[in-house]
Amino acid sequence: MTSIKKILLGEQGLVVIFLLAFAVVALTVPNFLTERNMLGLLQSVVTIGIVACTMMFCLASRDFDLSVGSTVAFTGMIAVMASNATGSIFLGLLAALAGGFIVGLFNGVVIAKFRINALITTLATMQIVRGLALISSDGRAVGINDPSFYQLALSKFLGIPTPIWVMLLLFVVFGFVLNRTVFGKNTLAIGGNPEASRLAGVNVVSMRVWIFALQGLVCGIAGILLASRITSGQPNAATGLELSVISACVLGGVSLAGGRAAMLGVIVGVLIMGIAENVMNLLNIQAFYQYVVRGCILLIAVLLDNLRSNIVGFRG
């Protein structure tokens, strides 16, 4: 029985379960497999997918970041406002990336160097950054002056929208970083046992700072693409994003206790989140029910993480 649980809860088992569920949905939900719907589905998970790439590292190192939604909205605002002020989209993008990096770096320094709990730190940052976005725009959406900014989201390559390619590229890059670099191995080592990692020569403080800095930088990328897609800087954008991203990661096998992560699992988790919402839209289910579904998915994700942790000798 234990071996069966290992298979079902492991990375391969998760993929098999996902494929079976995908097949059922494809056969029972009208218009699900159309090209337009598939591209729309992938477009809808771009923000979650991009942010999940680095949330995976946060969770794997026994941390998490509740400020990602606010950071995405804030960096989107920076991109639009800086582009409008300077007349240069390039400078606007640089400003947004710098803003995201600074927010992440601030989180990392406070958490790692001053040893403040990640929950409290990122909860505070979530409020501060969202407040800055609202203050800078007086609580209103900021329009884009240069229509070229829209092309970041509207442009296509081989018939597939550019934001999807960006998400796929980040999946590949951070999957490589996790599995093939010292940075990835040290991240998992810190999550498994921080003290043992420190004694083995890993600079735990520096690693944690850089993980959060990367998280902020990636939120900047997500914020830019989101602002381009919704054609404005929205201070209230990406509300609740942090819970969706954490749900996707934990569904994909990233352990809340740290030390375990797999990019393939995270991708499957992201797709599960997107498909759940997509199916409800196709079936004309009221948007209010999506909150219930997201909450249920988060609860299921935590229960699965608990099951994985309780299986002796399990490796994701």
TrEMBL record:
InterPro entries assigned: ABC_transp_permease (IPR001851)
NCBIfam families cross-referenced by the UniProt entry: PRK11285.1
Official protein name in the record: L-arabinose ABC transporter permease AraH
Keywords: Cell membrane, Membrane, Transmembrane, Transmembrane helix
Residue ranges crossing the lipid bilayer per the database entry: 12-33, 39-59, 66-83, 89-112, 157-178, 209-231, 243-276, 288-307
Name of the coding gene: araH
Pfam family name, one: BPD_transp_2
Topology with respect to the bilayer: Multi-pass membrane protein
Subcellular location: Cell membrane
Keyword Membrane listed: yes
